[in-house]
Amino acid sequence: MSKKLLLFCCLLLLALATGCVGPSPDFTLRVTPPKSDLPLSGTWQIAGLLGESEAVQPSAAAWVGKKLYFTADYALLDTYLLPRPRYQVKKMDSQTYLVHNPAFPAAVSLPVEVTIITLTDNRLFTCELLPAGTEELILQLFGSSYTARRLSPAVNPSVLNTPGIADITSLEDDAPQSNKRSGILLGLRAADGGCRTLWLAAEGLQLAPLLEAEGIIFPRRSGFYRLETVIVQAGNNSEELLFATPLFSSQKEREESPEIQAAAVQSGTVTRSVTYIGNDYVSVLEQRKTSPGGDVKEEYFRIFAVDALPAAKAVTLPDLMDSPDGTLPVSAAGSGRQENLFAEGDNVGLARNKGYWVFQGRTASGETYPLGLIPPDHVVFYNKLSVPWPRIKNKVPRATDALASPNDDLALVFTPCEILVFAVSDRSLAGSPLQKIPLQPGEEIIMAEWALGHYVANWTETLQSIVNPETPHSMANEEVQP
User: Fold this and answer.
1) Where are the beta strands (DSSP E) in 190-268?
2) Do residues 84 and 59 share a domain?
3) Domain with 79 in it
4) Same domain (yes/no): 266, 228
5) Could you give the 3-state DSSP secondary structure of residue 223?
6) Over the stretch 89-119, which tens digit does the pLDDT of each residue have?
7) Which residues of 248-286 are buried (b: 16+ CB within 10 A; e: fewer)?
8) pLDDT tens-digit profile of 159-187?
9) Nearest by Cα to 455 from 382, 355, 403, 376
């Protein structure tokens, strides 16, 4: 027998013997996952403000000296708890980062390449961490920039027992009505095209003073932004461009935006009227005239991604609905159209209808019609009305629209001339209005963003810093009125 054949037979006998005996009962097969260190884990302390944050947002100074705790199971920012944090790490060149973050202090020098760690709760809260070595970092939090230093690579679990800690993402579903905190950031557009933002906050159905700011201010993961319109002209042609700029960026930074400088003007006169603005998308009615004083030649609904502004390329409905072309039918209501939605010349926008944001279509001839489609959550985060529309009409016959808090504690009912604020009980409007807010002629809702729990105090501070920048406020010490 050859040596090769002998070796093969020995190996075969060994394999058969091992298969018959089987593994030892004490043997356990384990698959060990690759080890990965949590970015910037440990206990940190905010050391100071960067740039002019204190001048533009007085409440920012209150964070200096606060401690931050980062673990795989939770992140604790002073008393703000994120029980299931998500850390995303990316690298980019510093110039690209500064272009997309104009609110970052210009006086702070960055290396050619920066590492950005994004901490998010997968909803609205986000802060950015820029490591500066292993023991220092730059922190972007609530629209301000800070330096922070590491006190320890570990976190003492007892910090979760600190009084006042609350889940920043909590919807307060189990809280009694008397303890619930709700706030709404409301965007309104008047008949003359002017816009304003209202902030109404309530704690235990006690309403804080109404705050009002000019223009549209809206929340995003990276902080608060202002939606602005810039008219760019070239000869007899002019175009309105929409820009989303960080709330606390300077006027000079906005005017010197590279997007404005490089904007290409379309022929004729192009205007855009906002019908909806959310965290990530904006819907507009776009009108084009052949000359500044001429008649409207073309009119379209358009939906843009906020991140892409001021680009004029619209987002398609299949992109928003995650559906292929030709599979989304048109409701026969309204126009009686039986063709597929994607008929040539049709376009889609967002509008209000009896308490909900809905998609609406528009034909090439200018006819609007409803679509049998509800916008998905990533387009409109909260789009529910806990009080049935018939109950609202029974209570307020003049009602044209309504909004209800996710906390089921507060509702806003719109009439042609005012907003009526009600308490909610058992899915009904309770008692008399808590407050009446006058409306300007032809005002319509173009934004409705709810804040709950700990978000309410932060949003209040942000709006107060705009309305009255000389006097810092906090909802915790603001006297509320019914």
Assistant:
1) 195-203, 206-207, 211-214, 216-220, 223-234, 237-246
2) yes
3) 42-167
4) yes
5) strand
6) 888 888 877 766 666 777 788 888 888 888 8
7) bbeeeebeebeeeeebebeebbbbbebbbbbbbbbbbbb
8) 888 887 765 555 455 555 667 889 999 99
9) 382
Nearest Cα neighbor of 118 from 132, 128, 108, 131 is: 128
- Sheet of strand 136-141: strand arrangement: 86-93, 113-120, 126-131, 136-141, 144-152, 42-49, 67-70, 75-77, 80-82, 166-167
Mark out the alpha helices in 72-188 (DSSP H runs).
Answer: 94-100
Residue 419's φ and ψ, nearest 5 degrees, are -110, 130
Q: Please answer whether residues 468 and 188 qualify as being in contact, where contact means their C-beta atoms are separated by less than 8 angstroms.
A: no
Nearest CA-CA partner of 238 in 195, 284, 201, 293 = 293
In angstroms, rounded to a whole number, what is the distance separating the alpha carbons of residues 379 and 377?
A: 5
Query: What is the residue-averaged pLDDT of the chain?
Result: 76
Q: How many domains does the chain have?
A: 3
**Confidence (pTM):** 0.68
On whether residue 290 sits in a domain, the answer given is: yes
CA 407 vs CA 165, 170, 172, 452: distances in Å: 20, 10, 7, 7
DSSP string, 400-446: -EEEE-TTSSEEEEE-SSEEEEEEEETTEEEEEEEEEEE--TT-EEE
Which residue, of 347, 374, 401, is where some domain finishes? Answer: 374
* 364 alpha carbon, distance to own chain's centre: 32
- More confident position, 334 or 50: 50
Backbone angles phi, psi at 111, to 5 degrees: -65, 170
Q: What is the pLDDT of residue 239?
A: 84
Same domain, 66 and 124: yes
- Quote the pLDDT of residue 361: 85
* Burial class (CB within 10 angstroms; exposed 0-12, middle 13-18, buried 19+) of 299: middle
- Alpha carbon 419 to its chain centroid, in Å, reads 24
